[in-house]
Specification:
It is a single chain. This protein is 69% helix and 3% strand. With 518 residues, the protein is mainly alpha-helical. The chain has a single domain, classed as Amino acid/polyamine transporter I, CATH 1.20.1740. A hairpin with a 2-residue loop joins strand 1 and strand 2 (10-11).
Amino acid sequence: MIGAVCFKGINMNKLFEFIESVNSVVNDFVWVRIGLVLLFGVGVILTVSTRFFQLTHIRHWFSSTIGSIFKKDNKGGDKKGSVSQFQALCTALGATIGTGNIAGVSAAIVLGGPGAVFWMWVAAFFGMVTKFCEITLGIYFRRRNEKGEWAGGAMYYLKDGLGAKKGCKTLGAVLAAVFAVFTMIASFGIGNMGQVNTIVLNFEGAMFKGVDLGAVFGIPVLSIILGAVIMALAGVIILGGISRIASFAEKVVPFMAIGYVLGSVVLLIVNYKNFCPAFISIFRFAFNNEALVGGAAGAGIAQIITQGCKRGMFSNEAGLGSSVMVHSSADVREPVKQGMWGIFEVFCDTFIVCSMSAMVVLSAGLVDLERGVIKEGVNDDTLVSTAFGSVFGSFGEIFVALAIFLFAFTTIVGWSQYGAKATEYLFGVGSMKIYQIIFVAAVILGAVMQSSLAWDISDTFNGLMMIPNLIGVLAMLPLVTKLVRNYVDRRIKGKKDVVPMLSYDRTIQSEMEKKLNK
């Protein structure tokens, strides 16, 4: 037991308890006190400033994203180190569609009741524009590194965008470095060890029940073997760089998302009698200020909103600034055009995949829809698998375990790129390979760790990433508004005399203009 291990007089159990208590205080400050207000506030401001782009131009962004996947410019990047727009989407979706879509939704319902799902949707509605603006800024402020590959992310628009404002040069540089550090640290939690641990626990519970291969130094051999297999698979893909990561994501992500949705649809058909009551309960409990669940006695409207928004953002990562790093590698000329993939990304992640998980849980009879109370014997780790198992038996549990494996594994692969880009910003291109090797090696630690502390810390660092990113996006609101209106005038209204805004860098601006005129 970790708690029994002492090193030079330090009780490890007390050390972990101290770290957990400190993390709890920071997490409460980041999420409850300022994070959600900042997230919601920026989302509303951006939505109003872009004139509700996600609604007013829904036909355009939908046809320009998922409706254009078979077009030639979505088949692959033109240059080494670049990827197609669809590959960028799949890589970003691979990182966002993770265990948060299953365990995260379950946790929101357990802690905040059915009404938390409503606030997850609300957060996603505004999050669509937040991610749209993040990616648009990412493309506008990207540049080529010494290898000729695209380098972009929140750290670049913080340094070159916010930093270009009068008196903000130091502030922009500091926030950019802070964001990169938080991203790098978070990648080992949410993007690595936490995901691996979830894979191993689900595989052991669904496919290797009763299997005991013994232990080495108190660590189950089965966990070590599973961790080694995952590490080997991750290494083959991650060490191949962005092109291999994008190629893998392009093939796997659509399959896993569609497969999970179809499986959920089958379960909903079986439980069709509970569909309407389940759907109504989401709205019924969204504004209920009474205690909803036994595990959160006294929880009221604040708890419902917090859990819905927090878990929604944890799933779709809108406001986090993370997916900007992979979208910036897309072979695209128009910043706003790539930004629209961010709208679809949030729509797919939350309104489709998360909603399916929520409806599966609520319609499976695991929640008292009259009181919003989770029934005894289930928790957020087993809620979805129990729902599938109630209809499909052991096959349902295996299905969920496989879904979690794909969701979690693609998250590992996607976040490896985020951490690598943050490392590149801090230490140069040469550091990326070192980071990737360490990242792959850390997989084995996730397989054998016993504590949930890594997840809690990941949650905190997600929030810490969000704060400098949203400060930067909000500070550049005038620029975002100009970029969107410039695109709308040219591409939607068809005005011919408008000069395109494609990059803050004159050389890249000229290069992209020439490509547009071809």
